[in-house]
Specification:
The chain is α/β, with parallel strands linked by helices. It is built from 30 helices and 10 strands. It has 4 domains: 387 residues, Na+/H+ antiporter like fold (Up-down Bundle), CATH 1.20.1530.20; 129 residues, Rossmann fold (3-Layer(aba) Sandwich); 55 residues, no CATH class; 72 residues, Regulator of K+ conductance, C-terminal domain (Alpha-Beta Plaits, 2-Layer Sandwich), CATH 3.30.70.1450. 65% of the residues lie in helices and 7% in strands.
Length: 672
């Protein structure tokens, strides 16, 4: 029966997804690339396991709607404001310059100008899914390159909205009059405006209603209803299904329930968006690729080179160092998933012919497959390329403006026995506060021009510079420095800073903060004197509070913490501690402690004498003093009677103190 044939094809596709995800994760390539290749292999142009892809495409389009809805939720208007200069200036320059160059280049080959502009749209977008996955795997989402990449990607993803609106304009040669195009655009903007208003004022109330019902099923169905409903509304206005869902998600990102909404939509999004990428792979004609392999390779290489150059120079214009520009350039050379959505719309509108569409698909898949490899070696490539580039390459218009406003002229640092702080984030600011109080001299280096400007205006001794470079470290006075604190989130940069710092001043004491457990050993080998892993320090804080709750005094807890740190967090890392260390730990835990207890009216001790209570014989804990109305009574006599408000000071082991508290506490009421 036909319906069972469709079910069989869906099962084959799901089997391909289940196979692709673990295999590509094992080889550190985003599964998205595997989905594209799987679609190519099993599709009608491959081994023909799947002949009809209509059903798959319908499900895939629903997946894209949910993808854009959740991306809109994850955008957050507040998040955009925090990196607005990177988003607006960096993203705007990258998209604009790429479109202009691609349009000019494609037009030179004789393609119509509308198709040339559309190709510029497609090439200007990079893959948010691939770039953010690679940054996350490398623990670089909070680094300079991570924030820049995120900012540019955010702008690119927002550009899908006007690009989709311009599709009917670019297809105007198909008998569409200028008047019809204007009417369509007006309708489109009105529709987006209505969705914006609905998302702003109506949808939050609808979400609150779903929350009040307290039904998980209702909430999930309601979220899917919102995303698909807004998508359908935009499609009736002649726009993309995905456009309305994205706008709705963007507005709902400000809702207090945004995280709950994302959680409800994620399972559907992940499953159905996988179908989207597989369906795209099915559209690629393998015979075309083999017959035009040189053109495909040439197109992919041209895209990679062009996007690398444009993105690298944009990052330099943002006053970031050459190394960061090179790394960001390599990470964003691929064509993005939104380009596939745009390409489908362009093909339906007649903007792209079959040849250019197949060329686009093939080149896109090649760029995606090469991205993990390029990112892996981007740091090494940056190290090599920096040697051949002028040292002042990043001295651009914005950088000069920053220098002029905050006085970052190159001056020799005249500090002795000072602390060098690399990174002016939360940890750096806290350290600066303490150093000020103690009068210890310091100097700060940071890569964020806005952060440096703000700190300089507050009178901080801060400079703008890339501390991975030896000339910057020399400028910071590394030869005369006593301590360096590296408080940045870039593992690769941290290693390079360590290596260069120790070569310039072997005696400097270096303290490094790291988020990754795997970095600890390497950092010590490179010369770090102390490595502070955030994850383990959080664990220490947790067990410290637990031990305090069990009445362990601060000196005992401090001894335990010091022991764990001296052993390099070996206990937490699953290492076998030396026998001597284990003996120390056992001795600490077995040590005696002191604690206090406030006598209340309901306490069994109230009104009794010391001999009547007989605490020592019953629990093992000794009473060494009693404080009454701020007057201490040391070594109280056996006839001393307890009153409400007395503070008992006890000495004993941890177990004995616990037994004493149990005895002194009022009896619990039994409730039937």
């Amino acid at each position: 029966m036909p319906e069972f044939d469709i079910l069989a094809e869906l099962i084959l596709i799901l089997a391909a997804i289940l196979l692709v995800i673990p295999v590509f994760k094992r080889i550190n390539i985003p599964p998205l690339v595997g989905f594209l290749l799987a679609g190519l292999v099993i599709g009608p142009h491959g081994i023909k396991l799947i002949q009809r892809i209509e059903v798959v495409q319908i499900l895939a389009e629903i997946g894209v709607v949910l993808l854009l809805f959740t991306i809109g939720l994850e955008f957050s208007l507040a998040r955009l404001k925090r990196i607005k200069s990177i988003v607006l200036i960096g993203g705007g320059l990258q998209v604009t310059v790429t479109i202009i160059i691609v349009t000019a280049a494609v037009a030179m080959f004789g393609l119509p100008i509308r198709e040339a502009i559309f190709m510029g749209f497609l090439v200007s977008l990079s893959s948010t899914a691939i770039v953010m996955k690679l940054l996350s795997d490398r623990n670089e989402t909070d680094t300079a390159q991570g924030k820049i990449s995120l900012g540019i990607l955010l702008f690119q993803d927002l550009c899908i909205v006007p690009m989709m609106l311009l599709v009917p304009v670019l297809s105007a040669s198909k008998g569409t009059t200028f008047y019809e195009v204007i009417i369509r655009l007006i309708i489109a903007f009105i529709t987006v405006g209505i969705i914006f208003i609905a998302a702003r004022y109506v949808m939050p109330k609808f979400i609150e209603l779903l929350i009040k019902i307290r039904s998980r099923e209702m909430f999930v169905i309601g979220v899917v209803f919102i995303s698909l409903g807004t998508a359908l509304a935009t499609s009736y206005a002649g726009l993309s299904l995905a456009l309305g869902a994205f706008v709705a998600g963007l507005i709902l990102s400000e809702s207090e329930y945004s995280h709950e909404i994302v959680g409800a939509a994620l399972p559907f999004r992940d499953a159905l968006s996988s179908l989207f990428f597989i369906s795209i792979g099915m559209l690629l004609n393998l015979e075309f690729v083999l017959s035009s392999i040189l053109y495909v390779v040439g197109a992919a290489a041209s895209v990679i080179v062009l996007k690398f150059i444009v993105i690298a120079f944009v990052v330099l214009y943002l006053s970031f160092p050459t190394r960061t520009a090179i790394i960001v350039g390599f990470s964003m050379v691929q064509i993005g998933e939104f380009s596939f959505i745009l390409a489908l719309a362009g093909r339906s509108a007649g903007i792209m012919n079959d040849f250019t569409y197949q060329m686009f698909l093939a080149a896109s898949i090649v760029t995606m497959m090469l991205t993990p490899l390029l990112v892996k070696y981007s740091s090494d490539a940056a190290e090599i390329l920096q040697r051949f580039l002028p040292a002042r390459l990043a001295s651009n218009a914005m950088n000069k403006l920053v220098n002029k406003e905050i006085g970052l002229e190159t001056k020799n640092v005249r500090l002795i026995s000072h602390v060098i702080i690399i990174g002016y984030g939360l940890n750096g600011k806290n350290l600066v506060t303490v150093l000020k109080e103690t009068g210890i001299p310091y100097i700060i280096a940071d890569l964020n021009g806005e952060v440096v400007k703000a700190a300089k205006n507050l009178g901080e001794n801060i400079v703008y510079g890339d501390a991975t470079r030896q000339d910057i470290l020399t400028h910071l006075g590394i030869e005369n420095s006593r301590v360096m604190v590296v408080a940045i989130s870039d593992p690769d940069s941290t290693r390079r800073i360590l290596r260069n710092a120790k070569s310039l001043n072997p005696d400097i004491h270096i303290i490094v903060r790291t988020r990754s457990v795997s970095e600890i050993e390497d950092l010590y080998k490179l010369g770090a004197d102390q490595v502070i892993p955030e994850e383990y320090e959080t664990s220490i804080e947790i067990f410290t509070r637990v031990l305090r709750h069990y009445h362990l005094p601060r000196n005992i807890i401090a001894a335990q913490v010091g022991l764990i740190r001296r052993e390099g967090y070996g206990m937490f890392r699953g290492l076998q501690l030396p026998d001597a260390t284990m003996d120390q730990l056992a001795a600490i835990l077995a040590a005696g402690t002191t604690d206090t207890y406030l006598v209340l009216n309901e306490s069994p001790a109230c009104g009794k004498s010391l001999s009547e209570l007989d605490l020592r014989n019953r629990t093992g804990a000794s009473i060494i003093a009693i404080v009454r109305e701020n007057q201490p009574f040391t070594n109280p006599r056996a006839n001393f009677k307890f009153q409400s408000g007395d503070v008992i000071v006890m000495l004993g082991t941890h177990a004995e103190i616990d037994n004493a508290f149990e005895l002194l506490n009022p009896p619990r009421l039994e409730i039937d």
